[in-house]
Amino acid sequence: MKIYFTASIVGKKHYLRNYLKIIGILQKLHHQVKSDHIIKVSENQINMQAKSEREKFHKKLKKWIMDSDCMVVETSFPSISVGFEISLALNLGKPVLLLHTNEAPTLLSSYNDEKLICEEYKIDGLKDILVDFVNYVRGKCEQRFTFFITSEIAGFLEDVSKKKKIPKSVYVRSLIEKEIRT
Prior knowledge:
The protein is of the alpha/beta class. It has helices at residues 12-28, 36-39, 43-47, 51-67, 80-91, 106-109, 126-138, 151-164, 168-181; strands spanning 2-7, 32-34, 70-74, 96-100, 116-120. It contains 9 helices and 5 strands; from the N terminus they run βαβαααβαβαβααα. It has a 5-stranded parallel β-sheet, sandwiched between helices. α6 links the parallel β4 and β5 (116-120).
C-alpha cells in the first residue's frame, strides 16, 4: 500500500522521534511510505527556495497525494500547510489518519467525514492504531462506529488506556470481541 506521511517540518524539533516511529512501523508492515519531503528537509531549505521551486514542489506534492492509497498525519504541532494537505487528500477521497499526542487539531477535530480518523496516541500503542487504520483502508474494517459516553465512562477509559498503554478504541473493541467469542 502507498501511504503519504506528513507532519509539521517546524515540529520536527519536538516530534522527530515520533515521526520516525510512525514511518518505521508502516515500513515494517511492508508499506511504501512517502516521507522524505518532511524528514529530509529543513525549514531553512524551504524558506530559501524561489517561488518557482515552491510551486514545482506543490505540484509534486499533489501528485504524491493523488497516487497514495491513504494519508497518515502527525498533528501534535500545528501547521497550516499540513492542514492544506489534509484538505486536499479528503477532497480526493483519500482516507486520512490524524495522530496527536495531546490535543486533537482544533479545526479538524469537529470536522465530520467518515474518511477522517483522529486518534490520540502513545508510542507504545502506535502499531495497533496504524494496523487498524490500514485494515480500514483495505476494507477489512467494515464500519467506523462513534457514540457518546458519560464523563465517568470517559474517565474510566482514559485510566485503562494509560495503564494498558493502548488506545481506548482498542480496549473497547477487545471487550466486544471477547463477548462475541463467549
